[in-house]
Design brief:
The complex is a heterodimer of chains A (about 280) and B (about 250).
Chain A: E1 8-12, H1 18-23, E2 30-34, H2 44-55, E3 58-61, H3 75-88, E4 93-96, E5 99-102, E6 105-111, H4 117-134, E7 139-141, H5 156-167, E8 170-174, H6 175-185, H7 189-194, E9 201-206, E10 210-211, E11 216-217, H8 226-236, E12 243-246, H9 255-274
Parallel strand pairs in A: 1-2, 1-12, 2-3, 3-4, 4-7, 7-8, 8-9, 9-12
Antiparallel strand pairs in A: 5-6, 10-11
Helix pairs in contact in A: 4-5, 8-9
Chain B: H1 3-16, H2 19-22, H3 30-51, H4 53-59, H5 61-74, H6 89-96, H7 101-117, E1 147-153, H8 155-163, E2 173-185, E3 188-194, H9 196-206, H10 211-222, H11 224-240
Helix pairs in contact in B: 3-5, 4-5, 4-7, 4-8, 5-6, 6-7, 7-8, 10-11
Classes of the chains: A alpha/beta (about 280), B mainly alpha (about 250).
Chain lengths: ~280, ~250
Amino acid sequence: MPLPTFSGFGLGLRKPHYAEFLETAVPVDFVEVISENFMVAGGRPRHILRQVRERHPVALHGVSLSVGSAHGLDPDYLTRLRALADEIEPLFVSDHLSWSRAPGFNSHDLLPLPYNAEALETVCVNLARAQDALGRQLLMENPSSYMTYPQSDMSEWEFLRTVADRTGCGLLLDVNNIHVSAINHGLDPIAYVAGLPLDRVRQIHLAGHSQGETLLIDTHDQPVAPAVWALFAHVMALVGPVAVMIERDDNIPPLAELLAELDQARAFASRRMAA
Amino acid sequence: MTLGTLQADFRDWLATGSDRAAARFAPDAQAGLLVYQNNHRAALLDCLAESFPNTEKWLGSENFHACAAFHIDTCAPDSWSLDHYAESFPKSLAVQWPDDPAVAELAALELGLAETFVGHDAAPLQVAALGSIDWDRAMLKWVPTARLLPLRTNAPAIWSAHTSAQDIPMPCLMPQVTTVLIWRQAHIACFRTLDSLESEFARRLLDGMRFDALCRELACALGEAEGVRTAGGWLGRWVADGLVDHSVAA
């Protein structure tokens, strides 16, 4: 099954902006929501999502699939995500190349994987199972990371390329995550991008980060940084039709500010593509 | 080291933050480990603060954060949903505040309201449909978000005072256990305290009692006229409050 394609610019739908999305014509081509926030039985969250869906295409972006878990996936999670996806008919369903689930434990952070053959097999088996259960291909997002493992014997981009080849999944390229991980681990972001199967990129995330004590932290609480804009412009010259969006999860500004930032994304994209 | 072992070690680090757990990772990973543990704990703390805003106001930020930290240290999250982590917090507060049961009951009330907010949707019975129901055979089905919460303290009054910026009452034990009815109407989670008679019959209706049986028992208990008047009053309020499902079974 070929990956769907979509070209446009969107925003993450967040609570402070619900009213504007429901009451005004917000100039976006799509919105993205955090899947888990809407994987509930009913009530206002699902009601709002249905209303937003009548106005905009919606991408479902998850944080709890735990595709890298050595102990497999949670069947209840897959059932609920399938029900949500069947109702919303999303543009894309995505999650992260990470793990969060272990026996008797579920972190609510995106924990790093070692990049080796065992983890590769685990991710491919889990991802294939998830795609079967959901009846659709997923997009895998490159994570930001704050540590690496001595057990790794391949690069993150080699790992992602092989996962995409073996499972047929698409990629959600988070440009800020590339920048954060590149700074934290001394990587070349251009080489990272060059190593990816860019024909499989269907969505792009832009976000801000913060400087921690010794590491860059993917906080999503700041505007997109200049270095990330530059990398975004580089990426846009290399990918095909793609859904670009800005993620803001904390220190959320008025919607007008995010729309202005999205206009910057449009300008970077059009300048680079014209060149 | 297998992937499963590595993930178990990581779990131990997040759960304990101990030097022993950290020592299983390479020296150059230590700064990153701290970031992951900070993220892990911050997510749980944010969940508790968002789920129990009036409990936080009642305890004060410092006390609330200490209670949350104790809970995070002693209760690991085990669900894909971060919201589920809130479920065990009222019991943790009962352990931490054994001499002040209003704290745990205030949290239990907030949890009930939060769970009701995202409970199953339903189409409530409309007042206009009341006349077409065969009340001799009707079995009322309550909307799926309806639930009863028994309380020993004046936690509902404390919750209401925090929400409406009124003077906060002193916590106290009530003369007898009271029952709070929680439900959702028009996307808003609601509650009200029931008197002992309504509480008893509400519980039996939730367990499947038929409405004609309720009327007969009320008539026996209160006399024919008062029993009918009370049953009619309850039914009118339940319907007006959106508590009765449209599918009244005959």
